[in-house]
């Protein structure tokens, strides 16, 4: 069915209402009466047209409002969907940031473990690698436990791995002591001579000389007396020198 516009419908109604009454009563009215009747009819048509326009406008407003409501509902659904997606992305971003933070914290902790640390060795400060310190302390712990063979092996491996270590003098000395504890005097003397050669300023040097003298005495080597004398001369203020004097005075 063909739909009329608001203006077309009003014009058609006006034409119909104007033409029909005039044709039906053309012969019954004179000019004044006809003019009055025409004015009344026009007034009625205008009133009807106003009412019709109001109805059409009301219908149009309702239709527009309904369209807006529908559009708003669709928009709200899309917004809700976007909010859900944003929430998911926000959670993923937060989790990613937490993982990244945890990674850097763990990495920093690992790097700190690898960084040289300052330690005190025989009264002197030194920078040592954490693994270097751990390896030395493990070997020393074995030595203190009385497992001199395993301790000697551990000190040998340490010196091979960290030849320039600040613990090297001590490691070399305890290696000689491990040999001595196993009654291997030749091995002990060789090890302690390296202490005197490579680390003459180490606090372990006078102790190494005393250890050499002890091994020489065990081997009935007359050089033991001279070693004690050299010890007193080279390190007169050491505790080992005091012990050397006592041994010499007792002979």
List keywords for this structure.
251 residues; mainly alpha; Serine Threonine Protein Phosphatase 5, Tetratricopeptide repeat; 79% helix; disordered N terminus; Cell division coordinator CpoB
- Provide the β-strand percentage band: under 5%
Number of helices: 9
Largest sheet: 2 strands, antiparallel
Shape: rod-shaped
Pfam families: TolA_bind_tri, YfiO
Keywords: Cell cycle, Cell division, Coiled coil, Periplasm, Signal
Organism: Rugamonas aquatica
Coiled coil: 72-99
Which helices and strands appear, and what pairs or packs with what?
Blueprint: H1 6-25, H2 31-114, E1 117-121, E2 124-128, H3 130-144, H4 148-161, H5 168-181, H6 185-198, H7 204-218, H8 223-234, H9 239-249
Antiparallel strand pairs: 1-2
